[in-house]
Write a structure and sequence with these properties.
Layout lengths: L4 E4 L2 H9 L4 E7 L2 E7 L2 H11 L6 H16 L2 H8 L11
Antiparallel strand pairs: 1-3, 2-3
Length: 95
């Protein structure tokens, strides 16, 4: 295992890390599971520990990053279905 990268198949950990300022540098597919790859660092390890300890981040930012990761996984199909929902107001609507 390459110690220069951190790999997780936990979507919420990945979204938390993106919200914390880390960039996804790649994805890996293992059957039906997809893993997200990040550059490993002391800061990333600290942010993973923060997630596991119940660290808090703004909900709106988290949900937006989660949506972007799902879009990455599903080729945009998740977002397209969401946008068809008449109650969907989008993230730029100011609500």
């Amino acid at each position: 295992m390459d110690k220069n990268v951190y790999v997780t198949d936990h979507l919420y950990v990945a979204a938390f890390l993106v919200c914390s300022g880390h960039n996804v540098i790649g994805t890996q597919s293992n059957g039906s599971r997809v893993s997200f790859t990040f550059n490993n660092s002391a800061e990333l390890s600290s942010d993973v520990a923060s997630f596991l300890a119940g660290g808090l981040i703004p909900a709106r930012h988290f949900s937006f990053e989660l949506l972007k990761l799902k879009r990455m996984l599903h080729g945009g199909q998740y977002v397209k279905r969401l946008e068809k929902n008449e109650n969907y107001q989008g993230f730029n609507s100011g609500t």
